[in-house]
Amino acid sequence: MMAKKIKIEVVLLGMVLGGILSLAMSGSVPVFAVTQGGNDVADTLPEWTPEGRKAAARLATLPPKDEMVLVPGGPFLMGSNRQVDRSAYPQEMPQRTVEVDAFEIDKYEVTTVQYLRYVLANHLPPLVDWKWGGVFQETMANHPVMHLSWFEADAYCKWAGKRLATSAEWEKAARGTDGRIYPWGNQPAGLSRANFARTGLSGPVRDRPERVLLYPPIISVDKYENAVSPYGLFNMAGNVAEWTADWYDPSYYKYAPNTNPKGPPHGSHKAFRGGGWGDSGPTVRPAQRNGADPKTRMNWLGFRCARDSVSDQGSLAPTPTASPTPP
Q1: Residue in 304, 287, 88 with CA at minimum distance from that of residue 179
Q2: pLDDT at position 191
Q3: What order of strands is seen across the sheet that includes strand 241-247?
């Protein structure tokens, strides 16, 4: 019986893939990019088609979600107190007062359209989840970009005249100064406030069956107005986790400086914050922190950018011009 069930599932999967490819080849699906290799993300090599590049140029004219907000300089409570937050992990302790200088940070996670502009400006190939043409649609233009390494996120921010936020800056932007557990306060996370606790097959497939195979259940970066941080930032819990500038050390809070901590001087993993669409409620708490190899590319991991406050810079950030060379 089990062998028969497996055979049926394999046949159904083949039918889905065959139907997708047939649609693309027949012209029923607007071709955005063609991929070479297998169905596994790691085996794909995306490249532009002429039709895809033309469609990309049109989609790149959509309004970007590039607003930034000012986070004032001053102290805040960094980390967690187990007596207040029973879900706190050891790497979040001890909780203490830390001071950071004023800075600006993106109001939203960097979107696919924002990254598309960067790709076109620097003559880069499309991302892996823009495969099979129909995957990249206008309806996903304001979704957070994903499948990017730390190096690629860092290169984009520099191109945009910005930088990745330090882990301390990110935490203050997400929690404010009072040590709250979630961006909106201490009330538990729920699906009306954050995109989390979902499976890879539970997302909005809509009319594209290939989304089930590659595209996760993420949402537009401007959703959940009832769950913004004290500074008005969206999706600081859930949707996609976000790279920060720091190297990651689970014991860092025990020896970090009290002013402008920037993470350990070296390491093997880069810190990310905020949790993603598949994480649990405790994992999407902004105080929760973790790390990954900076070459990691995942469909639950994105980023947003920051910069020193304009008043500290003395002038506006430079216009994006530099061409990146991420590894």
Answers
A1: 287
A2: 87
A3: 289-292, 270-273, 241-247, 301-302
